[in-house]
Amino acid sequence: MKKFEYKVENIKAFGVTSLVLTKEHENKFNSLGEEGWELVTLNSLNNPRNLIAVFKREISGGK
């Protein structure tokens, strides 16, 4: 059976009337992707400018 580990990142979005993610955010997501992390979900909670990104990656070996 596959096993996964999860990572939670707090993302601060910008913008006045709509949310804007910057090139810096894109670079961070790409960096995590290169490490094997896959974005599962991106949600806002109470404040729409504060986003929660959940990533997962498969655990290899006996971790």
UniProtKB/TrEMBL annotation:
Pfam families found in the cross-reference section: DUF4177 (PF13783)
Protein name: DUF4177 domain-containing protein
Source species of the chain: Proteiniborus ethanoligenes
